[in-house]
Amino acid sequence: MSNSPLVSYTQLSPCYTPGRVNYTRITPHCMVGQLTAKSCGAIFARRSRGASSNYGIGTNGEVGLYVDEKNRSWCSSSAANDVRAITIECACDLTAPYSMNSKVYRSLINLCADICRRRGKKKLLWLGTKSAALNYKPKADEMVLTAHRWFNATACPGDWLYGREGDLANQVNALLSGSQIQQAEQPKEIIVDSKLDTDGLVGYKTIAKWQQIMGTPIDGEISGQKRSLKRYHLAFTKAGVWYSSGGSMLIEAVQKAVGLTGKDVDGQLGPVTIEAIQTRIKTDPDGYFREKTAKALQTRLNSGKF
User: CA-to-CA distance for 52 and 47, rounded, in angstroms?
Assistant: First the structure.
């Protein structure tokens, strides 16, 4: 099984299951953030993340490879689906309906068409419902679109794309009828250049600006935080922190920048890290990320440094 020639960036993830005989499905996903292919790859490169996709499409339309097509990714909350599917993460807005720009959507069409062509498939089907798709036995020259939300309580791939799955299939089928696949644009990094409001509320814009300055992937969220630390995160919006496991690349970079070492560099935004941040930005070091700390951070980030 070959990989797509449309790939312009490769970062293979350790999160996959080796080997599979065949695949007859394509499952597009939404990244929930305007990430580049490189940024998404950096996230999946962490074993502690416990997730991956075969491909990713960055906000500029570039295509990244994270798991070889010959292997199963960990993407759709369903091993039974993923062993049959090529999974594709797509850059999108941070909030519902998780809209994708035209470059991302065009690259998704091209990539799906390329997958079908290399597998000798002449038609991509969108059957509209979970029961219809999962009970359908594709013909030798067919592939079927499936959706993450069918296997877990998630909005993925977002209402924007879910409402266009039929159009996606039609566009792919038009290409399969003889049109040439278009090469995706080369990757470019997201630039976060707007000034932050010093409102004492840490959400997507503040975190994205912080990530840009620290040189970590930009997705506007602090991921992998222990739920027990939530009481220290008083100034963060609900969407600003993702409580699970594995730690945050941003927070690891921050911990190193403020001089923490050893076990204190764990990617977790706990009281020790918050106190070190507060000392650096010259506000009261009490270990709680309150409004005053958030305003001091925003002011410092607006100066172009941490």
Answer: 10
Report residue 295 as tokens: 């305003």
Tens of pLDDT, residues 109-127: 999 999 999 999 999 999 9
CA 285 vs CA 146, 225, 261, 278, 282: distances in Å: 49, 21, 18, 5, 8
What distances in angstroms separate CA 78 from CA 29, 95, 256, one per listed residue? 13, 24, 37
36 closest CA partner among 55, 54, 57, 13: 57
Q: Residue 179: what pLDDT?
A: 53
How is residue 111 written in tokens?
Answer: 């990539």
In percent, the amount of the chain with pLDDT more than 70 equals: 94
Q: What pLDDT, on a 0 to 100 scale, did the predictor assign at position 192?
A: 59
Looking at 3.40.91.80, 3.40.80.10, 3.40.50.300, 3.40.190.10, the CATH number of the domain 7-176 comes to: 3.40.80.10
